[in-house]
Amino acid sequence: MWHYRELIRNLTVADLKNRYQNTSLGFFWSLLSPLLLAGVLYFVFRHLWGHEEDFAVNILVGVMAWQFFATSTSSSLRTIVSNSGLVTRVYVPRHILVLSNVLTSLINSLLAFVALLPIILILLGSLPPTVLLFPLVHVVFFLFLFGAGLFLSSLFVYFRDLTQIWEVLIRALFFASPIMYPITIIPDYIMPYYLLNPVTQFIIIYRDVMVAGRFPSEYSIGVAAGFAVLACAVGSLTFRRLERRFAEQM
């Protein structure tokens, strides 16, 4: 990928421009969209769980992490098909198309999280020192999403119904993640299965380092890193096996 770094940069820049083309606010939507969603969730659920400590800022952090996941996977799904001209006419390593797409979502999410810091400062009164661990957590999440993007984009070339299936799964995962409610309401007998949701693990870690001011548990770190490694491994293997017939399926 290093030899194609200039192409990756150009694809990423082009994708960034296309996402906000003809919009008045441009990149501000990367912050405004999750803020509006967080505001709606706060006013709807504050009477149920508003007494929870740092409820508002926890919703904000959860929504930001969710937006990174949802935007990255949904756009990666169509990456190969959307770039059929490059796939069928020019030789480029096809996985860099997915990489540039996830990089675009990464840049958007970084802008959103950086803009979130002053809000956290206002709501909490100070920024926890552990917020310095945020880049490391974000890189691990990025690797997980890159692997997921490879897997989804390669399958979508062969199974176009995957768009509708993934939209349903995205909605289900939203409610199966502790975004608008505290994780403490989950019964103990369900918790082991609940924690198998990768988004849940990353939201827990984000809240630990950005809100609670504590180091994530070894279990959370190990599971999150394991998800990232597994996603990259499965995504890469699936992509390499299926990409041989990409051009035929376009």
Helix/strand class: mainly alpha
Shape: globular
Q: How many separate structural domains? A: 1
Mean pLDDT score, rounded? 88
Notes on the protein architecture:
The chain has 250 residues and is an all-alpha fold. The chain has twelve helices and no strands. The longest helix is centred in the middle third of the chain and has 30 residues. It is globular and about 60 Å long. It starts with a helix and ends with a helix.
Notable characteristics:
globular, 74% helix, 250 residues, 12 helices, mainly alpha
Quick structural summary:
With 250 residues, the protein is mainly α. The chain has helices at residues 5-19, 29-49, 55-77, 79-82, 84-89, 95-124, 134-158, 162-175, 191-194, 198-212, 218-242, 246-249. It has twelve helices and no strands.
Walk me through the topology:
Layout: H1 5-19, H2 29-49, H3 55-77, H4 79-82, H5 84-89, H6 95-124, H7 134-158, H8 162-175, H9 191-194, H10 198-212, H11 218-242, H12 246-249
